[in-house]
Amino acid sequence: MVRFLLKLAVLLLAIVIQFKFLSYFGWTLDLTLAALVAIAFFASWPEEIVFLSVGAWFLGYEPGIGWTTLIYLALPLIVFVGRRALPWQPWINNLMALAAALILFYLVAVGAAALVADFGRFLWDIGGSLVFGAAAFWLFHDYLKYRNI
Amino acid sequence: MIIALLALVVLVEPSLGWRLAGFIYNGGDGSDAGSALENAALKAELARLAPLEKYLVSQPPRNFLQVPIYSRSPFNFKNEILVAGGESAGLKVGAPVAIALPGENQSGPLIIIIGKVLKVFEDTAMVQTVFDSHFRLGVRVGKAGAEALLLGGGEPKVGLIPREEPVEKGEAVYAAGADFPNGAELGELGDVNFSSEGLFKEAPLKLPYDFNRLQVVSIIIK
How far apart are the CA of B106 and the nearest CA of chain A, in angstroms? Predict the structure, then answer.
């Protein structure tokens, strides 16, 4: 239960910071994705579904679940399913998976032209999200154990 | 059991998520953290009413539908908002979305275009704002009416201004489309420069409002 609550606390913190950033600056860091990717290395199947549902609930902004939100949540699910196949040190797997998820999400959601037009902001997003993702991973690493890795 | 309940809530009542997200976005009363969710939402709603006054005019034009913003896209580069008005209110895809600021000297409200309706649902509609990276709109600049193109993004830009047009910083930018009211402003020009290839002029669009603080918009219904 404590392990579950720790992961949930990190996810909720990520969601709050993501929305507050957006409110104050008009742009944000994808901390929810960073938290979900880190959690994917430490969660069981039921936990993974719970955390993805929490993410869907907060990030959904249109009736039903929009395709953008679906892709956003599918990416950590892919990390969860494929975590045993990642070849590097676990902490590198986390960072690489997060970076790949961010790039893939925005390429699909808005296209390369939009990213190039606002490349500085995109770099800030990746940098900030990687820092948060690394911190979340080390927190889980110190207090939880890997799932089947 | 918990998973089933969560799935049910996510699918059946997404609006609860919108309200919570909106509560986080707009800032609630921290001292009420221990109170029930409904009380927290009601207090947040009351706290939000005060800033609404700035964007509500006592007598909006007849073809304006003033609606509150339900939720906003939480992602970068994809600036969309969900508003409380849909098919049942007569909204159509492509309808201009504006804010109506009180005009000076009782000249009527100042209409500032902020986007257009992208999708319409039964009771809600998705609006694409000028901050969305895919937003495009033909515009005119200044008294001379130089034709240009508004390019949406984190910092909206007016581009494709012909080189020979004598546009200057501070000139008003107007929407130029059949679906948009004549003379509806979007903002004013920032510093004018030449594009990277030197063929056109371009300038950032300076806006007279803080998008992050908007809570009510006006949809123009024909």
Answer: 32
Q: What is the pLDDT of residues A67-121, one digit of tens each?
A: 888 999 999 999 999 988 888 888 999 999 999 999 999 999 888 888 888 889 8
Distance between CA B52 and CA B45 in Å, rounded? 11
pTM above 0.90, yes or no: no
Mean pLDDT of B137-148: 90
Given CB atoms, is A32 within the 8 Å cutoff of chain B? Answer: yes
- B interface with A, Cβ–Cβ below 8 Å: 2-3, 6-7, 9-11, 14, 16-18, 20-21, 24-27, 71-78, 80-82, 119, 121, 124, 126, 131, 133-134, 153-155, 211-212
Enumerate the H helices of B125-189 as residue ranges: none
Exposure b/e, B103-120, CB count within 10 A at least 16 = b: eeeeeebbbbbbbbbbbb
Q: What is the pLDDT of residues A9-32, one digit of tens each?
A: 999 999 999 999 998 888 899 999
Bigger pLDDT: B222 vs B36: B222
The one-letter code for the residue type at B69 is I
Say if the Cβ atoms of B3 and A58 lie within 8 Å. Answer: no
Tell me the two tokens of residue B8. Answer: 């049910």
Using a CB-CB cut-off of 8 Å, the residues of chain B touching A102 are none
B5-38: string of b/e by CB count within 10 Å (b at 16+)? ebeeebeeebeebbbbbbbbbbebeeeeeeeeee
User: Is B17 in contact with A20 (Cβ distance < 8 A)?
Assistant: no
